[in-house]
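Sample pair:
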Amino acid sequence: MVHSSHFLASLLLVVLFNVAKGQPLVPALFIFGDSVVDVGNNNQLPTIVKSNFLPYGRDFQNHQPTGRFCNGKLATDLTAENLGFTSYPPAYMNLKTKGNNLLNGANFASGASGYYEPTAKLYHAIPLSQQLEHYKESQNILVGVAGKSNASSIISGAIYLISAGSSDFVQNYYINPLLYKVYTADQFSDILIQCYASFIQNLYGLGARRIGVTTLAPVGCLPAAITLFGHDSNQCVARLNNDAVNFNRKLNTTSQSLQKSLPGLKLVLLDIYQPLYDLVTKPSENGFAEARRACCGTGLLETSILCNQKSIGTCANASEYVFWDGFHPSEAANQVLAGDLIAAGISLIS
């Protein structure tokens, strides 16, 4: 069944591409969120959550690190390619001049950001509220470059992708007694959902009409999460995965009610949980050799500054690994996820 849906998606894409004659399927792509989709906005920030050094990016264009938390392309890069773009939405904070380079969209995401404002502040990252301010600036720049009516059709026709929530749990709630002693995981997820709802309403208020939101990944299966919270087990941490499933259920309910209450909004939930869980629990069936350990260093914990050129044990071939570092999928895993994103997000394009 999975293959037939992928086949349909591919077929639909082929048809759409032929119709589009080399034009992207949508005018622009705007991306918000955390390290899973950050393409370098954290490079200039006084944060430890960075990846603008090798071995990050070793399988990317020119084998250069960009600030992507991966050995190569992110799922959103591959999604941009699938949509027919010939370049990726640039990291907004890295643009020396902002003008024509924003016509096809921009990336505002920041590693260690989340729905919960204090998560980003904890790591000196860019909170979603500030990412939204940057998006507002970019709208004004677009009007200047393209004129008002062109800018508004870019804004209403663009796809907006949001990926957040993992950092709120893994890099804040689970390790922060000021949170986990005060709130149950269920209560904390209610707080995140309120933040999510107001973010979508604000984005809608700025003209966004086609929004794709990724679910929480199976955070209990991240190599670093198993190392930190798995009590010497090598299995996914069930408690963390249950929290993610619970959060995703609320995300779904809330998204449906937002869709009903905001006229003209297409809001699609893009499921990351199941595809990634399948890769982790059935790696060999999906062409992977290793799912417990990541490629970088020991593969048990390293991420960001701990994953560097001196990290001992970094694997030679990242395509055999589901995870690149302790928190982030490899490019090979991202390719699988991007296929699922396109299949799930078809309704945003049509």
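The beta strands are 29-33, 105-107, 159-163, 210-214, 266-270.
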